[in-house]
Amino acid sequence: MNGIPFVKMHGLGNDFVVFDGRRDPAVLDLDDATAARIADRKTGVGCDQLIVIEPARDDMADAFMRIRNNDGGEVEACGNATRCVASIVMGELGRNDAIIETVVGLLDANASTNGLVTVDMGQVKLDWRDIPLAEAVDTNHIPLSLGPLSDAVGVNVGNPHAVFFVEDAEAIDIEKLGPVLEHHEMFPERANIEVCSIVGENQIRMRVWERGVGVTRACGTGACAVGVAAARRGLTGRKTEIILDGGKLTIEWLPDDHVLMTGPVATSFQGFLHSSLLGQH
Ligand SMILES: N[C@@H](CCC[C@H](N)C(=O)O)C(=O)O
Fold first, then answer.
1. Does the pLDDT at position 280 exceed 80?
2. Where are the domains of the chain?
């Protein structure tokens, strides 16, 4: 077959087209428009995020990972894709651990015997300057309301999140409210929006509107933000089970502010990208 090989993977239905830029340099300098063309679900391969594995820059890292949203824009972090890339790299190395480098730092990953992968997503940031927010506000109580949503918690997991707690997350029209909040002037770099409710002891139901994508079945960094936000508000302990549309993630906010995310990884298929999607004819 001609064309650039890719693998289609997902974490809880948050799906990715993964290219290997170490082998195929043509994918190393994709622009936003090309990435969006590949991510398009009708005319491209289709995915929430497009991932390129690149050679590590840092001596400590095993590989570098570049992340683009469905709209083609490059972003700093993606929890579910980090588990997927870590599983590829661990397979290559024949090890149960790997260090994945991103634009915001080095992430330690480990495979457990039950087939799940744990990633240390790094230290969360809770200061308004790091979220980033337009106003100098208390990030535990962002003064922002829209319909039934108000009083968000801001958490930066490498990327910005606004977490809203409600009585019943299922009752919220996230398709309608998500895009307005994503683009709200409070968030100069836009934001991922999570709506959640406490459904048991240390158990949270979460729905997400992802920046640059829309509603997805799961968001790993979003789950980290929700776990941290719930503990910060005193609604749960520091270890939580987050129930997303696509399944469950376990999140643990450590005393040093690092956040551990544990969940599954799956491969759907392998394919070859037609050159027309790269703009070559
Ligand atoms: N699905 C991801 C997050 C991807 C990036 C996000 N949409 C953003 O713009 O920050 C995850 O699993 O964390």
1. no
2. 4-116+265-278, 123-261
Quick check: ipTM above 0.90?
yes
- Please classify residue 207 by burial: count the beta carbons closer than 10 Å to its beta carbon, then call 0-12 exposed, 13-18 middle and 19+ buried: buried
- Domain 123-261 in CATH 3.30.360.10: no
CATH of domain 4-116+265-278: 3.10.310.10
- pLDDT for 278: 86
User: Is residue 220 annotated as involved in ligand binding?
Assistant: yes
- Which residues belong to the active site? 78, 219
- What pTM was estimated for this model as a whole? 0.97
pLDDT digits (tens, 9 = 90+) for 81-106: 999 999 999 999 999 999 999 999 99
Instruction: Report whether 27 contacts 60 (CB < 8 A).
Output: no
Ligand 1 atom 3 nearest Cα: 78
| Nearest-10 Cα torsion for 210, 213, 218, 221 | -50
Ligand 1: residue whose CA is nearest its atom 2: 78
The answer to whether the beta carbons of residues 43 and 49 sit under 8 Å apart is: no
